[in-house]
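Researcher: I've been going back and forth with a colleague about how HAD family phosphatase might be arranged in three dimensions. Neither of us has a model we trust, so I'd like an independent prediction. The organism is Rhodalgimonas zhirmunskyi, in case that matters for your notes. Sequence below.
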Amino acid sequence: MTPSVVVFDIGGVLVDWQPHLAWLDEMGSRAMVDAFMRRIDFPALNLRADGGETFADLAAELTEAEDACRLSGYVAHYPKTVRTRIEGTWDILDRLRAQGTPVHAITNWSAETWPKGLEAQPRLAEVFGTTIVSGQEKTLKPGPRIFELLCERAGVAPEDCLFIDDAAHNAEGARAAGMDAHHFTTAQALHKALTERGLL
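Model: Here is an independent structure prediction for HAD family phosphatase. You can compare it with whatever you and your colleague have in mind.
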């Protein structure tokens, strides 16, 4: 079946997320920020936050007080990390909306930082019919439940949906849940994928 609904991931597809920018002004160099992020295993902690844990609780697990203080301040500085839009994808999104194609979003994003992201990128609150935020739901991509939630709330069937994500394993998760999926690399490749499916 040809999809008629487009479901976007956000970070890495519509917004260029650069977490190091939360600490760059304070720490003064990218190398120092990178060392801090490696030391605390920031990707693993961030994924736990995306799953519903708070950064304060995660910071409390760290043994170095300075590291804990930095991590607990992440939410306040979060808007710095998502200032840049991926313009080519926004152009595609706006075109889909203009032609009446239903567009929704599923994002692995902390419940704490999501409002801060909307401060930096207010259009994210306006452009989607339904948005599923993992931290609010306490369920992550690529697991099936988050895709089921989108379908339930948007009133669509999985086979009607094309899901777009910059992480290949999330695209695979969408396929396992019954959706078509496109692994996002560039806006040009996305345009081609949508055109091939008759969506543009």
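Researcher: What would you highlight for our discussion?
Model: I'd start with this: The domain at 5-16+83-196 is CATH 3.40.50.1000 (Rossmann fold). After that, consider the following. The first strand starts at residue 5 and ends at 8.
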